[in-house]
What does this fold into?
Amino acid sequence: MNPETKYLRTALQLAERGMPVMPLRGSKGPMGNCRACRENACGGRPNMKTPGPCTCAAPCHAWAAATTDPHILTSTAWAPAWRQAAAVAYHPGGAGFTVVDLDNAGAIAWARRTLPATRTVATTRGEHWVYLGTMTSPNAVRPGVDIKSLMSYARWLGPGAGALAPLPDAARALAVKESTAARPASRPVTAAAPAGGGQCPHRSPAYLERGIAMAEQRIEEAPDGIHRTVYRMFLAVLSAHGRCGCLTDAHIGRLFTAAQGRGESLRHCEDAWSNACTALGM
It folds into this structure.
């Protein structure tokens, strides 16, 4: 059986069980948007927070493309994606599940001490603990622990072992702790305006607004490598605007909000911002 047939067959079997599925490409990330939807030119799925209104027939918009419709999965528009596929993913929240992704032995040991036993799936680095129920999907809620549920996807690695347990309050509490953390950056930009009358060289606030909006969009639409994308966008904004004093806490907060909307933790945002400042000698 060739890989295209294997992954499509797996996807159809999962869809029949009510699990919204989608193909993953070689990097195990979602398929990139098609040309018509690139950079959300279609106007659909702003900030990846809703499954519409884009009606593109291709598997665009990452997790929001996941479907249980066999006609869509076997359509000619999806055929190129299945030819590129290296794995199958599903939308846990869309199936009524939450996956606690444990990336290492320490995280697994923590889960065994803290969370009730449930269905467990072995991964390349650790385990997925699957619970019945949905929640938000923050990453890095503690070392080696991510949550994959609503607005997220998880790689299908098999049915696992054990009975499904209800989503425990201990898991929900991780997201509450994450979402109530202080914002925005722990290190706001304080560089003084350059000499020469103290005027911002950009001359127009619109230039800064376009820069922030573009960085937000790039973060929100990154198909994978989100850590790298966030750092690169922080670096780009600081490089263009960090030395003239025009950045405000509100601008930084917008960047952090975009990154956290893609699952970045506050700690990762702060680290990326700090590293970008250091790289530029700020």
